[in-house]
Amino acid sequence: HPDGLPGGAAQQGTQEYCYCSREKGESLEKWQTRSVYAAAAWYYNHLAGVISVVMITEDQEAVAQYCNLTAGVYVITVQDFLQNFWPELRAVRELYASVCQALQEKASEGSQREYAEHVHAKVLEAGIKSGRYLQGTVKISKHHSEAVVTTDGSSHKDADLSGSVLVCGIKNRNRATHGDVVAVELLPRGEWRGRVAALAEGPGEESESRAMPTGRVVGILQRNWRDYVVTFPPREGPQSQGRGPKHVLTVPWDRRIPKIRVGTQQADALQGHRVVVRIDSWESTSQYPNGHMVRVLGRAGELETEIQTVLVENGIHLSPFSDAQLREMPVSSPERPWRVDPDQAAARRDLRESHLVFSIDPRGCEDVDDALSVRRLDGGLLELGVHIADVTHFVKEGSLTDVEARLRATTYYLADRRYDMLPPVLSSDLCSLLGGVGRYAMSVMWQLDAHTLAVKDVWFGRTVIRSSYQLHYELAQALLNGEQAEVPELAGLGPEERDARLAKLTQALEMLTQVARRLRAHRDRGGALELEGVEVRAQLDKDKNITALVPRQPLEVHETVAECMIHANHWVARRIQEAFPHQALLRRHPPPRQEVFGQLVDSAAAKGFAITTRSNKELAESLDRAVDPQDALVNRLLRMMATSAMSQALYFSTGAQDQAQDQYQYHYGLALEKYTHFTSPIRRYADMVVHRLLAAAISLEKGEEPGGALASNRELEELAQHINQKNRAADTAQKLSTVLFQCLYFKEQDPQTDPRCTADAVIYSIKNDGVLVFVPEYGVKGPVYLKNRDGQVVSVGADGACEWRSGSIQKHWDHIVSSSGGGSATFRLFDHITVRISVQSSPFHADCLKLEVVNNQKHRGSAAQQLQPQGRQQLVQEVVRLAEEAQERAGRPAKLSREEREFSQSRSPNLYSLLEEVRELALMD
């Protein structure tokens, strides 16, 4: 560009200055044409008239209206452009003429349907309005040839069907793929079927649940075509020597997507490689859609290829932070260290000398975004403080860094790396509340009655803090337990001073724990749930490499910190909604549907426990009572089932729903009327939005104007939906990456001889052809089949050893019986069995763990007895090492670059990532 502006700045200018609001009564086509002309005129002026700009349109009225408005901006038709600007392109003109003729012929036919089995567009529209057809989104099962169309609440002409419609068989889907918005026609009630209820994909019997509304797809309203990762299969037979492109049926990584036909001249070289493709069309005469290649990820099975596959399949497109974004960051280096601005210190409440502030985080944590303080005041009061990194001081709304953070919406944590939402200078330095340095914070400080903990006063505001101690959970718990522990910040002090400061720190931790216990007890009385998940924590070394995947060991200090954060989030939610009743970003957790608690209720009944699910309070109390003194895993498994039954918590704008509907804003799991996210702005964009709302509310309270214009309810609701979508993608990617590392690890072991492949498992659900188990040592859940495809069943010997024999399976609600010539064996809910872990590999899809029962008794190995991470201590590190060795053998560079190791991001951008960034930006207002 002549003015030296980078492409990103030019694009931002285009979006900022060229947006045209749609006028009342203006058609969509006219509005789009006017918007394109505004962009063309801006770009001509942006280039200072050096280059002419040509706008091409088929709208003759637009040509007449805009052709003479701006000198240097030409508005012409496509035909004039081809004839007058490029007269030598005869072939192009001829092609254009033939395309126009074909389109006219197609239009003259009057058939506005894509496929013969779909109904006419006008009939489809009328049918939806009349209730003959139901509109909804296709959700295809991963394991069976059936789909469920989740309707949008519209009702059918004969019955109120606001739930789901089953579509059985590929033929009845009529070329609809997962995620498409479709119209379905119900079949007669006599043809309704139930969903297939098998254990999982693979061998075993199948049964059907009760009949549900069943139909067929009669039209596709909106395609959900996106980027798909496919694998080129091996070529069969003699390979063609022709020069033309070969059309190959590639196999998508996602089992729910049909094969995609791709034309390429590199088909032979791409055998066994994973490639990103995009669907272009689906001809009515073809069983498969057509697509084109976007980029090659690498050979299937390699670590980096599989990681990139997980990202692409979840719609996560991350490129390194641009130079323009990094130029917005403050300077912080050993030569020029960042310091607190005296003007900022004067404008904020300075807590550096008056308060003992400390943080408690996982070991090795670098993005420390929260810190705590507690102290006694005169008059029988306590002061509790929660201090959160003031990210919005450094990231101004509308800046390039803010736009990037909004697009990412969250920090993405994978098993071996993370992709930060903010540049490292903020996430790991200036916004991280590190020990011994001054930092800006947004603080919430309560004055509590020392005896009842009733809130006497609360203060919100910007502060300057200096954390005295940067503790990790295990160290803080050791201090609370009175154990000998080394605090790094006290290492260089004399014995007397060290003991005095250690006593002060321990007293603060004990006081904080007592406060947290009382806060938790108050929420428990309201019905707060204590749920359980399969959480595996990644341990990092000093180089940010993961050294182990370790199941989280629950400590009381975890609950202490969490309770303080929940308390802060609740009070901030109340504050911003009071100030902005229709423009506050809150978080709700809807009550789950009662029918999803079936497995939990049945499993608990097998142990003699009654689970009541009418309210969160009754559910919490019944879970507390469901304790087996002989096996602590029983209660843990029941809480895991309750967690699986929960609805997903979502962000929303308070103006999007009637304020009278309190249930809409209620957080079911935490038993709080109002809740939001305020305490992690380094890794969540929602928290940054809440920080800005809180700052605006504080300014209004002081009689000042807010720093900037607040987002409208519509804009805030759109942002909430975007953040919800990105959070779902981040959660799915994190789970898939953990499974990927587990599979890569076990793939290198011999399941028949390696003791690490044998573990203890607990049965938590009975199915038709087997059981579902949980392996606590590895945090793995999965199916164990008791009947295979050959009709053989598991037979148990006198010593408990299992083998396959001819026989039968009989299922009961709380147990399953395997009968064979050697006798019968019973597997009951919550029985411990010994399983062998192996990997079920696929050349096209993701690998998965395979669990096989080898003994119907509890595993007696040392790892199972101690439940310690001995078998996984080097899991991720071992997988990374093996992947690097494989790359070295292939002659490719194996070690990560400094940028990749330090920032966990690609060293150099590519055209694909750049275009993806442009595409996402173009979708923003």
Short description:
With 925 residues, this protein is α+β, with helices and mostly antiparallel strands.
What's the arrangement of secondary structure elements?
Layout: H1 7-18, H2 28-46, E1 53-56, H3 60-66, E2 73-76, H4 78-85, H5 90-109, H6 121-130, E3 133-140, E4 146-151, E5 164-168, H7 170-173, E6 181-186, E7 215-222, E8 227-231, E9 246-252, E10 260-264, E11 273-281, E12 290-299, H8 303-313, H9 323-327, H10 342-347, E13 349-350, E14 357-361, E15 370-377, E16 381-389, H11 391-394, H12 400-408, E17 412-413, E18 418-419, H13 424-430, E19 438-449, E20 455-472, H14 473-480, H15 495-526, E21 536-540, E22 546-551, H16 556-579, E23 585-588, H17 598-606, H18 616-625, H19 633-645, E24 650-653, H20 662-665, H21 685-701, H22 713-747, E25 758-766, E26 770-775, E27 780-785, E28 792-796, E29 802-811, E30 815-820, E31 823-828, E32 832-840, E33 848-855, H23 862-866, H24 875-889, H25 898-903, H26 911-922
Parallel strand pairs: 1-2, 10-12, 13-20, 14-20
Antiparallel strand pairs: 3-4, 3-6, 4-5, 6-7, 8-9, 8-11, 9-10, 11-12, 14-15, 15-16, 16-19, 17-18, 19-20, 21-22, 23-24, 25-26, 25-32, 26-27, 28-29, 29-30, 30-31, 32-33
Helix pairs in contact: 1-2, 8-22, 15-16, 16-21, 17-19, 22-24
